[in-house]
From TrEMBL:
It comes from the Bacteria. It comes from Aliirhizobium cellulosilyticum. This is Xaa-Pro dipeptidyl-peptidase-like domain-containing protein. Residues 17-138 form the Xaa-Pro dipeptidyl-peptidase-like domain. Transmembrane segments: none annotated. GO terms for molecular function: hydrolase activity. It holds the Pfam family Peptidase_S15.
Length: 225
């Protein structure tokens, strides 16, 4: 997969990019965990997500947030990292103007950035939030959440406790017009140690079902005049 360097808001950003053979293929962008706690685009879960989308014909990008690897800039507590993600999506879209839709998948800190990106970009039609941390990050911006997606976490996660993730899911599930799918990996911690295959199996199943038109909200019933 080609190594790429593209311009971000705080300097160059380093990524790995795999274009689809189809001009109009959807785009997938994968966002890594917290830069100050060892998160990089080479994280095993980030890599597996990248490969999952690539295998299904998406044009796929993962990249290092500012200050990581060969990406320039300093850590910016989320605001700058969101700008990085928006620039990354702009860059891919500039190369693939015929692509009309996009997915975003984020893990941990990347899940928080991904959900914010979702609010800004109407072309994002699906998301995967893996081990989001509503106990640490404010998700109240999801008002309303514009797209259907998957939230998945482990029931032994001490970093993002299950009760907090459940609270976020319940809040999102009250919204009309979208369908939130929530999966729990039994025995998994925040890093899915020994459970990455199970996690990826759930993600693959969700994506495959979405790609054939399942797991979308019921259309609103027409009112009889």
């Amino acid at each position: 997969m080609p190594e790429v360097i593209f311009n971000g808001p705080a300097g160059r950003l380093e990524g790995r990019y795999q274009p689809s053979k189809e001009k109009s293929a959807p785009i997938a962008i994968i966002l890594h965990p917290h830069p100050q706690f060892g998160g990089t685009m080479n994280n095993q879960i980030v890599y597996q997500l990248f490969y999952m989308f690539q295998k299904r014909g998406f044009t796929t990008l993962r990249f290092n947030f500012r200050s990581i690897g060969r990406s320039q800039g300093e850590f910016d507590h989320g605001a700058g990292e969101l700008s990085d993600a928006a620039s990354a999506l702009d860059w891919v879209q500039s190369l693939h103007p015929d692509s009309k839709s996009c997915w975003v998948a984020g893990y941990s800190f990347g899940a928080w950035i991904g959900m914010q990106l979702l609010m800004r970009r109407p072309e994002i039609e699906g998301f995967m939030s893996i081990a989001p941390q509503p106990n640490i990050y404010d998700f109240s911006f999801l008002a309303p959440c514009p797209s259907s997606g998957l939230i998945i976490n482990g029931d032994s996660d001490k970093v993002a406790p299950e009760k907090d993730v459940n609270g976020l899911v319940e809040k999102l599930k009250t919204q009309k017009g979208i369908l939130i799918t929530h999966k729990i990996v039994e025995g998994a911690n925040h890093f899915f140690n020994g459970q990455v295959d199970t996690l990826m199996g759930e993600c693959e199943d969700y994506l495959d079902r979405r790609l054939v038109g399942e797991l979308v909200p019921e259309p609103a019933a027409k009112r009889i005049r």
